[in-house]
């Protein structure tokens, strides 16, 4: 059990909950040290509290644990719906404000998990300010699929989703709020987020709708019975329904190395979006509701419908081995390149795509740069940016990785085994908005990490003379579970393996992914 990470995970989680104050004893925030021009701030934009109909914890419980597990920013995203729209969105705000004052070294956003009309869920959050509650409340009451009874896949409901994103953009332009962002959550879980809907969200306001979860939360859900829930990672364990997009393959309802099919398939849906040359970023989050290994139960005599919340949790109950979640920062991280430690800088970094994600602390840092080949004095451009060069100029990709040096929260030091470079052509807007593959994207180079390597490693991939616009992204793995990708070994010879329902220990299959950067020739 210890070798598999199960004992360590359960012990740390249970110990932290048994004495909640102990969680804040030794916070680690390595990303605060500026590296390569930015502070790389780790965060989580998908977290539920007692103000969610299926939640348990107080806001401060999540903040304490997130702080202890090294997060710098986080978003409270209680479920949208009639009760939350009427009571919860206002009632949670004082708890958030109080936690902001108590934990000034964690940037705490208020948001909600939007029931997207005609589709799945999404994180919507705003920059703190005097109108944060008013805008969220108006948005939820006007555009939430549950509140508006707009869950069916109809053209009118799809249009309502687009209008909701446009509403958020208008609130920013009118300066009611300083900023707002949207990320689609667990996009492939039920197959109801069709490619044309995702493109419509992105195009409705690209300053607001900027990405989706590359890896869902609920990562403990795959741990085998009797030690865990025995489901799929992310609770991805379903199958197509009448509401699902009919062209999605059956494999899309599973995770691969803990990542969503839309992200994990090289040449798949995410790549088809990037091949259009338009930004669309990935994240990784906890989706924390009920924590694996915890002993919490909802407070007695709770009446959620009347009060918009459950009473404060009580502890000492049987350990929750059927729970599928980790505390924020315990397993999943979204690291954002920010100019400084501020709400605005985190949101700018997310919008710009200066983002990489990892599971289980697989790596400690990542610096990906594209530059003119051989020009060592030029730092080049980083994640989310575009390098413009004269046509035919040789270009190279430089990947620098800080290896894990300390035990993760399952009490072992992860070992990076391989790094893959993925490259694709930019072919312009898709003629068919429901396309979810792109033909030129593939793994173009794999680098093996020397066994026993310490500190950092550096790899250089020579792209060669650039005669067309391209994009590149990077991923890495501990190498424990790989297989040829769904589009064939010529596209992805050793990609993440499909997770097995009921037997998918997340600690034995760790990956990191970067967001892309672009290279565009001129002349």
TrEMBL record:
Instruction: Tell me the first and last residues of the signal peptide.
Output: 1-24
Q: Name one Pfam family in it.
A: PHP
Named from the GO MF annotations, one term is: 5'-3' RNA exonuclease activity
Polymerase/histidinol phosphatase N-terminal domain sequence ranges = 43-118
Name the domain of life this protein comes from: Bacteria
Does Ion transport show up as a keyword for this record?
A: no
Which controlled-vocabulary keywords does the entry list?
A: Signal
**Is Signal set as a keyword in this record?**
yes
Q: What is this protein called?
A: Histidinol-phosphatase
What is the organism field in this record? Acrocarpospora phusangensis
The opening ranks of the lineage are:
Bacteria, Bacillati, Actinomycetota, Actinomycetes, Streptosporangiales
């Amino acid at each position: 059990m210890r070798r598999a990470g199960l004992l360590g995970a359960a012990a740390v989680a249970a110990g932290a909950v048994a004495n909640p104050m102990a969680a804040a004893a030794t916070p680690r925030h390595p990303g605060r040290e500026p590296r390569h021009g930015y502070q790389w701030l780790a965060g989580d934009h998908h977290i539920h509290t007692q103000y969610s109909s299926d939640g348990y914890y107080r806001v401060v419980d999540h903040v304490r644990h997130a702080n202890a597990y090294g997060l710098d920013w986080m978003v409270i995203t209680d479920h949208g719906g009639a009760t939350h729209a009427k009571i919860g969105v206002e009632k949670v705000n004082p708890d958030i404000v109080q936690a902001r004052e108590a934990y000034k070294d964690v940037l705490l956003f208020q948001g909600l998990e939007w029931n997207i009309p005609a589709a799945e869920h999404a994180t919507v959050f705003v920059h703190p300010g005097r109108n944060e509650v008013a805008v969220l409340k108006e948005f939820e009451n006007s555009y939430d699929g549950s509140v508006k009874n707009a869950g069916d896949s109809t053209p009118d409901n799809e249009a309502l989703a687009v209008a909701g994103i446009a509403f958020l953009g208008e609130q920013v332009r009118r300066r009611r709020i300083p900023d707002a962002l949207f990320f689609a959550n667990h996009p492939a879980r039920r197959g109801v987020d069709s490619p044309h809907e995702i493109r419509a969200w992105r195009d409705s306001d690209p300053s607001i709708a900027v990405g989706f979860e590359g890896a869902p939360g609920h990562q403990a859900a795959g741990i085998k019975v009797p030690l865990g829930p025995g489901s799929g990672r992310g609770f991805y364990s379903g199958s197509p329904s009448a509401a699902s997009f009919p062209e999605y393959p059956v494999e899309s309802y599973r995770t691969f190395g803990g990542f969503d099919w839309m992200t994990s398939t090289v040449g798949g849906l995410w790549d088809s979006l990037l091949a259009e040359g338009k930004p669309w970023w990935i994240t990784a989050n906890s989706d924390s509701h009920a924590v694996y290994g915890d002993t919490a139960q909802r407070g007695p005599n709770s009446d959620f419908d009347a009060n918009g919340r459950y009473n404060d949790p009580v502890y000492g109950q049987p350990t929750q081995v059927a729970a599928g979640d980790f505390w924020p920062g315990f397993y999943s991280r979204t690291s954002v390149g920010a100019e400084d430690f501020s709400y605005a800088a985190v949101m700018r970094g997310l919008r710009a795509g200066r983002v990489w994600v990892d599971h289980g602390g697989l790596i400690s840092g990542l610096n990906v740069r594209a530059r003119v080949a051989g020009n060592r004095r030029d730092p080049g451009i980083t994640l989310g940016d575009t390098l413009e060069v004269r046509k035919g100029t040789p270009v190279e990709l430089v990947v620098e990785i800080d290896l894990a040096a300390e035990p993760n929260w399952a009490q072992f030091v992860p070992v990076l085994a391989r790094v893959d470079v993925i490259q694709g052509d930019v072919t312009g807007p898709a003629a068919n908005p429901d396309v979810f593959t792109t033909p030129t994207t593939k793994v173009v180079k794999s680098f093996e990490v020397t066994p026993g390597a310490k500190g950092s490693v550096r790899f250089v991939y020579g792209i060669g003379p650039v005669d067309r616009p391209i994009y590149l992204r990077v991923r890495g793995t501990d190498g424990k579970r790989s297989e040829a990708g769904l589009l064939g070994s010529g596209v992805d010879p050793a990609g993440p393996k499909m997770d097995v329902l009921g037997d998918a220990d997340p600690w034995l299959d760790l990956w990191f992914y970067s967001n892309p950067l672009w290279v565009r020739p001129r002349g």
